[in-house]
Amino acid sequence: MMELIKAKGNTYYFESPAKVGLVLLGDGTCVLIDSGNDKTAAKRIKRTLDEMGQTLVAIYNTHCHADHIGGNAYLQAQTGCKVYSPGVECDFTNHPILESSLLYSAVPPRPLRGKFMLAEPSVAEPLTADVLPTGFSLLPLGGHALDMVGIRTPDDVLFVGDVVSAPETLAKYRVAYTFDVGNYLASLDTLRGVKAALFVPSHTPPTADLTELLDLNEAAANAVAADILDLCRTPRTHEMLLKALFDKYGLTLTFSQFALVGGALRAYLSWLLDTGRVEPLITENYLYYKAV
Ligand SMILES: [Zn+2]
């Protein structure tokens, strides 16, 4: 765990539950892409950078989920490095309580305040093209999170965050967390037209050709949408739909999955409502979703 692997040229990544990119800038300084899931990961990263004689100057976050920004606070406190996050992800990085509040729609109860759901705050500034070193660029990839970005390094290695899930994760859990399904599908389409020497997804091995993963993730999203639409042929409430999906996919509900998969379900329902395939039906103070 946290093994440092060379991707290409001066671009490396730490193997961890959510990969952390490392780019050596050539003058003894370096930058990270994301920061690992917690303080323990951050300590290991810091130790490796010390052994390499590298000074960390900045962390560029692809998005604000706890497993991507969890090392920010420790590394910033230890090194004084800058932290940058894109768009509204910056506000969430400064105030991670917003992310778990978004998932629950209210102050998050204890099961949603563990380190997997709630990172420590760090002091982040907006991640825009003009704060990147020469040769880096950004690719907007919203949908999984509001304003997630891909980050391309000067070695033509493109870190794509959580835009694709691993095949084994999709096979097991079926529903990947999605905030905005329409935007997510558009991001998958965007990536079909993008070339890079190497793509580095956070949770599955790097690849020079992302096509198979894009196909798999798009098919999985469309299958979930079709299943929800099919279930809505009998009007069902959100919780009835959530139970039906868990039963259909052989999953066991937990509190955190209630928030994550329940949130993704609401994203699918928003998309189906906005594209005219589902309509709300309110009867006896129940809100049902009904296929059109
Ligand atoms: Zn994520």
SSE inventory with pairings:
Elements lengths: L2 E6 L2 E5 L4 E5 L4 E5 L5 H14 L2 E6 L5 H4 L2 H8 L2 E4 L3 H6 L2 H8 L19 E3 L10 E4 L8 E4 L4 E3 L7 H7 L7 H12 L5 E3 L10 H21 L6 H12 L5 H20 L3 E6 L2 E6 L1
Parallel strand pairs: 4-5, 5-6, 6-7, 10-11
Antiparallel strand pairs: 1-2, 2-3, 3-4, 8-9, 9-10, 12-13
Helix pairs in contact: 1-3, 7-8, 8-10, 9-10
Structure description:
The protein has 292 residues and is an alpha/beta fold. The chain has 2 domains: 3-162, Metallo-beta-lactamase, Chain A; 223-291, Winged helix-like DNA-binding domain superfamily/Winged helix DNA-binding domain (Arc Repressor Mutant, subunit A, Orthogonal Bundle), CATH 1.10.10.10. Helix content is 38%, strand content 21%. The chain is built from 10 helices and 13 strands. The strands form 3 sheets. A 7-stranded mixed β-sheet has the order 1-2-3-4-5-6-7. Helix 1 (39-52) crosses helix 3 (72-79). The longest helix is centred in the C-terminal third of the chain and has 21 residues, at 211-231. The protein is globular. The mean pLDDT is 96. Zinc ion (ZN) binds at residues 63, 65, 144-145, 162.
Within CATH, the superfamily of the largest domain carries the name Ribonuclease Z/Hydroxyacylglutathione hydrolase-like
C-alpha Rg (nearest Å) = 20 Å
Helix and strand element order = EEEEHEHHEHHEEEEHHEHHHEE
CATH class of the largest domain: Alpha Beta
List keywords for this structure.
292 residues; alpha/beta; Metallo-beta-lactamase, Chain A; Arc Repressor Mutant, subunit A; 2 domains; four-stranded mixed β-sheet; 10 helices; binds zinc ion
